[in-house]
């Protein structure tokens, strides 16, 4: 009994430390980004810098969220699974800032122009579809909703794989000439999806 309690306490400490690290490494860059923007330290095109940073941040956190399960299995560290929701929520947070930055700085809150952009630009259409799906996952990550949804919850949250692909295509189509970076992200995304091939077959 004492050994089980000791292991539980050790796992609890590891989980809390990892969660604290995620909070710091997710929030601090976001704060520094806007601090730099307010002090005009983001170069010749600060709007592009802010939009790109939050978009890449959302993509990185989404990838980390999907990396948790295979990593936990490979390392046999079950406590890693307890930070998956937190990473997903931070991916959502960065994605929301990404969209808000685009609406505020690029479109000057012109909603009619936003709808025109969604219709006329496929990469924006795909990006908006991804943020809507990600919003649904963030809202239903609440424990009470998860219990109420039952088996339908897992079906909904399996759309994270679709979201990953949508974000990859959004990134690839959004660049004008430099395709190396989005191509690398697409390859990483496909590798992560390939690790779940058996799940997809089922």
Give a short summary of the structure.
The chain is mostly helical and 202 residues long. Helices cover 83% and strands 0% of the residues.
Any key phrases for this structure?
globular, 10 helices, 202 residues, single chain, mainly alpha
The SS-based structural class is: mainly alpha
Main beta sheet, described? none
Helix content: over 70%
Low-confidence spans: pLDDT under 50, at least 5 residues? none
Strand content: under 5%
Overall body shape: globular
Radius of gyration: 19 Å
**How much is the average pLDDT?**
91
**Discrete helix count:** 10
Distance between the termini: 39 Å
**SSE arrangement, N to C:** HHHHHHHHHH
Number of domains: 1
SS elements, strand count: 0
Molecular structure report:
This protein has 202 residues and is mainly alpha-helical. It has one domain. The chain is built from 10 helices and no strands. It has helices at residues 2-38, 46-75, 84-106, 111-120, 122-139, 143-149, 151-157, 160-174, 180-194, 197-201. α1 (2-38) packs parallel to α3, α2 packs antiparallel against α3 and α4 (111-120) packs across α5 (122-139). The protein is globular, with a radius of gyration of 19 Å.
